[in-house]
Amino acid sequence: MPDSQPFPEDSPTALPRVLHTPRSRALLSxxxxxxxxxxxxxxxxxxxxxxxxxxxxGEPCRACGRALLGEADLGTDEESxxxxxxxxxxxxxxxxxxxxxxxxxxxxxxxxxxxxCPFPPLSPAQRDELRQLLYPSSxxxxxxxxxxxxxxxxxxxxxxxxxxxxxxxxxxxxxxxxIRGVVKAVRIDDQAKDxxxxxDTEGLHPEYQRLTDDQWSWIKHIVHAEEGPRRGRPRADVxxxxxxxxxxIRTGITWRELPAEFGSWQTALRRHRQLxxxxxxxxxxxxxxxxxxPE
Length: 295
Fold this sequence. Notes:
Blueprint lengths: L17 E3 L2 H20 L9 H5 L21 H17 L7 E2 L8 E2 L10 H11 L10 E7 L4 E7 L7 E4 L4 E10 L2 H6 L17 H12 L13 H14 L13 H13 L2 H12 L4
Antiparallel strand pairs: 1-7, 2-3, 4-5, 4-7, 6-7
Helix pairs in contact: 6-9, 7-8
């Protein structure tokens, strides 16, 4: 049962570790999670996710039956492409109620629904590269913390066995019996009293680690090639900009939600766009993926 007591914010024993989420963001996470849960119930007993072998062999999407690979089989002349676009328009209309948009693979015009159609699986090599780049500490995540979370419905739940620095954006409310967004979380375990000196901030996702000195040494020549004397306001630290962009991509947040420790989100966004436009960003991610593989 949920703990219905208010947060002890005015108590002298209140713990310092507090996470806040804008209510609009919590409601958005809640609506997505509820839609995904409804889709999981609809798919009960059915596995819509292709194996990588099936995907590589050209099997269509199990959810909608539309092509994932092999667009050439549909034709690449102007008339065939017009037919594909018309079919996409009809597909979008049929899935308008999903409210999550559509996606399509690179070099393939056939569209799929974000809610209804699972993404194609990664290859084994891609999984290894992504794990090394984005989850360097995934095997050693501390799950010892206890949190009290306030939900969008104003009910309160107590969560045990969670990360000391992060709470999932949605939680199943035992009173409402539906998934709700988390608007506030307070860490209430004893370890928070003794060892957690963090402030009243959201903090970084625990599975993201900033670039190490070694990783930065691999890529700094890419971004410092353009660094030189310039007039006006000093340029933002480019290492922080790269870290901010990697964090944004890893967590799926918007630029506006970038933690304050990365500095101005507007500056990070502007500099990231400059890196993309100059092709430096592609070189950065490619270098990290190639150099950060398991030995």
